[in-house]
């Protein structure tokens, strides 16, 4: 009897000892790498060098050809609208104008003679002294003389305009940025001789690499700092070149400046561009848990994980831009494929 009781005690002891070993060997919650969302994650910033230029830049040229006899401006000159910039030698055009005026006088005399003849033969026709065919001939001569006179007047006006075109004036207030012709040079009509940059509206021009241009949009607000006077302003992207430069493989982006900016042409600036989408957050690609077409992340709260659906807006190397999270969220950024909903986890702090 004692042997049976002793055997039972031994069996019970072994059973209890086995249970104790099982409790000691129970696995701990997995250790995960996390990242807490804060303001530094919300926007990614890129910096580019820019140059101040005028929004409106005009290549000025004469409307007639000739020899330049005077240049009243130089590169950097401030000019006003209507100010004389260059002058051509008007001798040949003056002679053409005189010839046109003489042609007007000649055709006017022919017109007057044709009118007098038509009037006389009209009276004879009323008295049945001539046939109708004769009157028609003088009527035709009158109409031809009138047409010749009108053409001569038009030619004279054109010659007068050409004489006015020998003086090149500024079409707006601005700065002469480049001089392409000198006194004594013979230029043709339409050949660029000066470049005028209007000073009523400035902009900053930057060159964006082709792998970054997708994050720039028209209307995007950017921060601009001018190195010369340390002035900071907010500009707006006005124009994006549709084609990359064949040599540098960059896209030209023009940024409008607000009124009242204390800048000058040619000044350099640092342009800071943040992400286009407000609320965008940058995470490593390893944080994304993909199920079908839905992108999700694991959030850690109270020591347990739960899935949170997000929206992916852009990819950049090993990072991904997402929306749908808020500051203070703790996101698992490694080992996301081994987790399940409601699972207890340990973070690096634990």
What key attributes describe this structure?
single chain, 350 residues, conserved putative lor/sdh protein from methanococcus maripaludis s2 fold, OB fold (Dihydrolipoamide Acetyltransferase, E2P), 6-stranded antiparallel barrel, 5-stranded antiparallel sheet, 4 helices, elongated
Shape: elongated
Q: Count of DSSP E strands?
A: 21
Question: Which radius of gyration do the C-alpha atoms yield?
Answer: 43 Å
**Count of separate structural domains:** 4
Looking at this structure, what is the CATH superfamily of the largest domain? Efflux pump adaptor protein, beta barrel domain
**Beta-strand percentage range:** 35-45%
Going by helix content, strand content and strand pairing, the class is: alpha+beta
The helix-strand sequence is HEHEEEEEHHEEEEEEEEEEEEEEE
* Arrangement of strands in the largest sheet: 2-11-14-13-12-15
* Portion of residues within helices: 25-40%
Secondary structure tally, helices? 4
Q: What's the CATH topology label of the largest domain?
A: Elongation Factor Tu (Ef-tu), domain 3
The average pLDDT score comes to 84
Alpha carbon gap, first and last residue: 54 Å
Question: For this structure, what is the CATH class of the largest domain?
Answer: Mainly Beta
Helix-strand blueprint:
Blueprint: H1 2-24, E1 33-36, H2 39-42, E2 46-54, E3 57-61, E4 66-71, E5 78-79, E6 84-88, H3 91-126, H4 132-164, E7 167-169, E8 174-179, E9 186-187, E10 192-198, E11 202-209, E12 221-226, E13 231-240, E14 250-256, E15 268-273, E16 281-284, E17 289-291, E18 294-301, E19 304-316, E20 319-323, E21 330-334
Antiparallel strand pairs: 1-21, 2-11, 2-15, 3-10, 4-6, 4-9, 5-8, 6-7, 8-10, 11-14, 12-13, 12-15, 13-14, 16-20, 17-18, 18-19, 19-20
Helix pairs in contact: 3-4
